[in-house]
């Protein structure tokens, strides 16, 4: 059987931060990413193709040009796509002399809900109301477009909906102090108040002011995107890339202006070669359905976190994985996050400059189960007292080489051990396991523990946290729970524009016998739906006979990192397309009551989860008080 995950000999070839420009049409080209983790997958050609740990050569992170597997509805690059330069080193990419500064049209939501604070409150900081989303958004946009950034990107500005004049729209103060409502016509198009051009930062700052630029009624998001598409089409230049940056709180569009569909509009922009960044500046609206809606837009715009991992192709374009409720758009709930979100966009688009990215989170999830005491070929080590031939010793040594080799200045490394050591001497040392002088008595299938949270310059802390002779190994193999622990930390600590990765280091043994629930495959799919890729390092020999190869191959494919993943479309589809009505992965456990959701761009009718079992979910079992929830059906 072919190994699709990382073999131990390739382990040290991990990562070279921020090499990908992040904006090429990855789904269309079908090549692997030039981001750090590509070095891992490119090196994993089996046990005979790489040097021993510590000597594997890391490919130049700048040689790649795309990000992720091919599975898009189209098969060519977006019109006007050009190379943006070569990578000089981790964290920066220098634009070539022949690059053209791209057009970047900012679509600023001026609807009345922007008067609130990001958490949905009415501002009380008169007279400037700097805590309002409106003030914060304008300030962040002015920072984004200021010199010298505006010498490398042709920024433009669209306000939506259009202000018809005559006092129909209202000021921020009128909306807050008088609760005055705008009377402009409903669902008007946007207006491009400044066409993209170099050196436009000062002009944009002159055009928008929180106190005087008016707020208008209704939320015609789809019409605003169509206005942008028309402008881009009329001003297309050969070789010049075009981008839309939608800044919105995501509220009310489906009630006030559901037609034209924002999703269709973003998919149409993608078809004409325009990528769309989605900056969701919202707190309260996320609880009202905005997350799913904005995830769809980010996928359609081909800029979702970890794209195309959290997205699936349809006949019309990409949409988010069904049921995903973790933001893969650029979510900002406060001024700091909004600034980070826009900064991450700017770092990807500039031409003739050093491209930047926020160092990604890379969380090692190290298997500390009892079987790690053996050698990779399944034998009992005889090289006392250090037992350097054990998988446990070799895995710790390899991780320390990676995090201690200087990469921790460009990557935010962290370390998780699984299962958790409950203390009290219940887990055992490597020597106790090898000499069979003590048995591990820890509770079965415990969760993991994060010893070192992902952070810059964490190499020394990781080296201090683990030692093969003193760090204990434990009983049972809760692989799925370990991945859930990693997911929880990464999701709770996500930063807008920062990529996140899990590196699962395991011998792959025994999980299905000792701890089959939760399924590692399903958890890995959920990670991918959150834009988090999972790399799989399978460190074993004897366990291959017990089905570990197939298991780890499946996890690597679900994690969107398998070797040759870009050409294995069928495997990707099987791992990430839970929309198929007969797909068992679409079935979930829900409380034994039906729940309805409000309409969305993808589902224009109300829908609900029914409490009755479905024939399409034959493999599902649910805990007490829960039932199988089959695919959504239309509510009566």
Low-pLDDT residue intervals, each spanning 5 or more residues:
9-14, 19-96, 567-636
Structural class: alpha/beta
What does the radius of gyration come to?
26 Å
Tally of separate helices:
18
Give the oligomeric state of the chains in this entry, treating copies of one chain as homo and distinct chains as hetero: single chain
Beta-strand content bin: 15-25%
State the helical fraction. 25-40%
Amino-to-carboxy terminus distance:
50 Å
Across the major sheet, the strand order is 5-4-3-6-7-10
For the biggest sheet, the summary is: 6 strands, mixed
Number of beta-strand segments: 21
Mean pLDDT across all residues, rounded?
78
Biased composition (Polar residues): 602-613
Organism: Nannocystis pusilla
Biased composition (Low complexity): 37-103
Domain VWFA: 103-349, 361-556
Account of the 3D structure:
This protein has 636 residues and is α/β, with parallel strands linked by helices. Helix content is 26%, strand content 16%. The chain contains 18 helices and 21 strands. The protein has helices spanning 26-29, 38-43, 133-145, 172-177, 201-207, 221-234, 253-256, 262-271, 290-300, 335-349, 391-403, 430-435, 459-465, 479-492, 511-514, 520-529, 548-558, 569-576; strands at residues 86-89, 92-94, 103-109, 154-160, 191-197, 242-248, 274-281, 311-313, 318-320, 330-332, 354-355, 361-367, 412-418, 449-455, 500-506, 533-538, 588-591, 595-597, 607-609, 626-629, 633-634. The longest helix is centred in the middle third of the chain and has 15 residues, at 335-349. The two termini are 50 Å apart. Residues 9-14, 19-96 and 567-636 have low confidence and may be disordered.
